Amino acid sequence: MDLTLAADADRIPALLDTVRDHAGRVLAGLADRPAAGSPRQGPARPLPEHGIGTERALAEFAARWEPGFSASAGPRYLGFVTGGATPAAVAGDWLATAHDQNVAATHDSSATDLERETLRWLGELLDLGTAHSGAFVTGATMSNLVGLAIGREWLGERAGISVAEDGAAALGPVPILSGAAHSSVFKALAMLGLGRKNLRTIPTLDGREAVDPDRLAEALDALDGRPAIVVANAGTVNTVDFDDLRAVAALRERYPFWLHVDGAFGAFAALSPAHEHLVAGLAEADSVCVDLHKWLNVPYDSAAQFTRRKDLQLRVFQNAAAYLGVPADDPAFVHLTPENSRRLRALPAWFALAAYGRQGHREIVERDIALARRLGQRIEELPGLRLLAPVRLNVVCFTLAENPTPERVNALAEVIAADGRAFLTPTEYDGTRALRAAFSNWRTTEADVERIAEAIADAARAVPPSR
């Protein structure tokens, strides 16, 4: 054994204590760290011929790289709908690494049963009912891909073919309809061979990102009975708007289509009695995307995919190898997801749900919603800024009151990031360049909202006037 590795092996408990103490200091200091870090940390160094051991590697990391890391786990990082990681989720993630389980198969570990239990808990949390089965994947993009892949196989079933066996070419062009599909849906369509250009954008309701059910019905009627895929939204990325899922699902009484719902973070509205009506009908979907490293506040990367048609999912993703065994009635996850190599990412979610339950996560969701509304009110009070949409749930979409060109709004985002008190990401809504502040972190408080509002106000004053 390499001498440096052997020395580390003899000191594993002490090394883990050192890393634990370091991580504890990082987490304790999140409130005081800049929300965004500098992406430039100097030139890369060559691969070392001889290693320096874990303790010195930690010291080098802390000196060279850590100062440029963002405080994305902190309370004022409002970009990308990023949750932090609750204490229980961190504990689960560390243990997932320590145990290093391969949850591809079922014959050597109870980890697969833990994953199944966690998925049942998530289904209960989101009121999906018992008809849906689930699987853990890396994020919303992969969850959308799995759901659309099952939908693609459903289209093949209607045509008397198996796309998994015969290829997407055997299916021909597929009509895909959506009101305001997330960019990850287009990426998934490209990977599945369905094609980005085959997604037809259906008009939305006036002043909304929610699809117009009547216009969707017209588009389906124009297909003359040809099966399609409909991608509905349970929380759009810019304004957290919701399609009327019950109205969309009811169209299946007249038209044949696979209903996939992208509920990456909006599905968690089910936890709030005041907002659960927004996801009414979610359980009627054929497949559902839920991103857990957003509002469930587990570490990256973690998402879940749910579907009513596990049989079609198995047909798409089954892996034929003698050492993996033949898929059974309750197949191993290697036969249900794109990855053969699967980390036990269910464990942080299990810890989070076991530690805080429905009530603990409801409190996070409802607090974030209240804080988003508070920031929306502050934006309306600040000179030089305006809201672009009502604060429907947990995202505040706003822009400069005058001449919101991409250059000026981008400059506003850069000034906010450089200030360090907050981090927001730019977007475009209804043809207008804007910023979006997404609340999903369990640490965020009213005091943080005031600091964020002050940072935005200061940045707005610092942006050069329009010409």
UniProtKB/TrEMBL annotation:
**Region Disordered: what ranges?**
30-50
Alphabetic keyword roster: Antibiotic biosynthesis, Decarboxylase, Lyase, Pyridoxal phosphate
Cited InterPro entries: Aromatic_deC, PyrdxlP-dep_de-COase, PyrdxlP-dep_Trfase, PyrdxlP-dep_Trfase_major, PyrdxlP-dep_Trfase_small
User: Which superkingdom does the taxonomy of this entry point to?
Assistant: Bacteria
Q: Offer one example of a GO biological process linked to this entry.
A: antibiotic biosynthetic process
Lyase found in the keyword field: yes
Q: Could you tell me which residues carry N6-(pyridoxal phosphate)lysine?
A: 294
Q: Which cofactor does it need?
A: pyridoxal 5'-phosphate
**Molecular-function GO terms, alphabetical:** aromatic-L-amino-acid decarboxylase activity; pyridoxal phosphate binding
Tell whether Lyase is among the UniProt keywords.
Answer: yes
Q: Which family does it belong to?
A: Belongs to the group II decarboxylase family.
By what name is this protein known? Glutamate/tyrosine decarboxylase-like PLP-dependent enzyme
